[in-house]
Design brief:
Blueprint (H helix, E strand, L loop, with lengths): L2 H9 L5 E10 L11 E2 L1 E14 L4 E6 L8 E4 L12 H13 L8 E7 L9 H16 L6 H15 L7 H8 L4 E6 L5 E5 L5 E7 L7 H19 L13 H7 L6 H25 L3 H17 L6 H12 L4 E5 L6 E7 L3 H16 L4 E3 L8 E2 L2
Parallel strand pairs: 4-6
Antiparallel strand pairs: 1-3, 1-13, 2-7, 3-6, 4-5, 7-8, 9-11, 9-12, 10-11
Helix pairs in contact: 2-3, 2-4, 3-4, 3-5, 4-5, 6-8, 8-9, 10-11
Keywords: ATP-binding, Carbohydrate metabolism, Cytoplasm, Galactose metabolism, Kinase, Magnesium, Metal-binding, Nucleotide-binding, Transferase
GO molecular function, one term: galactokinase activity
InterPro entries: Galactokinase, Galactokinase_bac, Galactokinase_CS, GalKase_N, GHMP_kinase_C_dom, GHMP_kinase_C_sf, GHMP_kinase_N_dom, GHMP_knse_ATP-bd_CS
Length: about 375
């Protein structure tokens, strides 16, 4: 990342501090973070970078190398309202606006350069990466001493209330709290996290991007959230629970009759069974049972395809190609409707894996997939 020279070119001065915020991949446990479930994500070595310099007025200037056509976007601490024309800057403005409304003291503005290598709309959480980055930058520069959990919660609040995306806490929390070479078992109800091993000897995680331009993802996501809320309200008339993920598969069998809409029954089934898969996946990881973990990945994708209906042709073809090319397990990661999938691939199969998957995917869709070789990394941090 050429942060320093680009900053100097854009702002005609040198930056004072540099920061990095990772993206994330979720190994298993999809669409259950907003249902109070346990999830199994890791922070990854592609993400979002920032270079900043303090100003002596209330002006904040934003520039992104990824959206250079937009030029410098200038706002003030006195007017941080959402503006459709500001695009990606709205995520950053939402964070600053929320900090101010929570009473944090921000005495002056910054010049900020953002550059990321996370593919947009890939399902690797580019928006959450930016939100956590901006929260961390302002906490660091102004000595606000905001905890990583609180930065994550502020990011979620911005998504929910400022941007209108009713997401859970998983993305922001793993980006804030990730650990090198590990994943976190994360309780999205209590925010408790537990570091666990995230790799199997003799196998490699491969991230695959459909490169399919997702449409209406936010509205479909919000629709799933509303469907789960409707199920929860009905279930709560018969059992005392706060979240759907408290329901066991055995309880589901006796409670599903309460739900008259067959589509809502399917949504309910996914949430309950996916939670059970996360619990089982932690055991398989502890036992270094790669094949058992791989089987859970395949079952997760099938549930997301058939019961939760968030995959679509491109993801299904990509996962099908990964299995044919030697992966022992593969599934969508992220919201779905396009974006990325992950695959657990035996190392002897790696040499031909991308070639075989690419050929299969191009034949079926006409699009060319992308592949990412990533490490599991620490969460957001200052890098200089």
């Amino acid at each position: 990342m050429e942060l320093k020279p680009v900053f100097e070119q854009v702002y005609q001065t040198k930056p004072e501090r540099l920061y990095y915020s990772p993206g994330r991949v979720n190994l298993i446990g999809e669409h259950i973070d907003y249902n109070g479930g346990l999830v199994f994500p890791a922070a990854i070595s592609i993400g979002t970078y920032a270079a900043i310099r303090e100003r002596n007025d209330h002006t904040i200037r934003f520039y992104s190398s990824n959206f250079s056509d937009q030029g410098i976007v200038t706002v003030t601490l006195d007017d941080l309202a959402y503006h459709p024309g500001h695009g990606w800057v709205n995520y950053a403005k939402g964070i600053i606006d929320t900090l101010l409304k929570r009473g944090y003291h921000i005495p002056h503005g910054l010049d900020i350069l953002i550059e990321g290598n996370l593919p947009p709309t890939s399902g690797l959480s580019s928006s959450a990466s930016l939100e956590v980055l901006v929260g961390y930058v302002f906490s660091d520069v102004f000595d606000l001493e905001i905890s990583r959990e609180t930065i994550a919660l502020i990011g979620q609040e911005v998504e929910n209330n400022y941007m209108g995306m009713h997401c859970g806490i998983m993305d922001q929390l793993i980006i804030a709290k990730g650990l090198a070479n590990q994943a976190l078992i994360m309780n999205t109800k209590t925010l408790a996290t537990k570091p666990v091993n995230a790799s199997f000897d003799g196998y490699t995680w491969v991230i695959m991007n459909t490169n399919y331009k997702r449409k209406n993802t936010d509205s479909k996501y919000n629709e799933r959230v509303a469907e789960c809320q409707a199920v929860l309200k009905r279930v709560q008339t018969h059992v005392t629970v706060e979240t759907l993920c408290e329901i066991t598969p055995l309880q589901f069998e006796s409670l599903q009759y309460l739900i008259e809409d067959p589509i809502l029954v399917k949504r309910f089934k996914h949430v309950v069974t996916e939670q059970a898969r996360v619990i089982e996946a932690e055991k398989r990881m502890a036992e270094m049972d790669a094949k058992g973990f791989g089987a859970l990945l395949n079952a997760s994708h099938a549930s997301l395809k058939n019961d939760y209906e968030v995959t679509g042709l491109h993801l299904d073809v990509l996962v099908e190609g990964a299995i044919k090319a030697g992966a022992i397990g593969s599934r969508v990661t992220g919201a779905g409707f396009g974006g990325c999938a992950i695959a657990l691939v035996p190392n002897p199969s790696l040499k031909q894996f991308e070639t075989l998957v690419k050929a299969h995917y191009i034949e079926k869709t006409g699009l060319t997939p992308a592949f990412y070789d990533v490490l599991f990394t620490d969460g957001v941090k200052r890098i200089e």
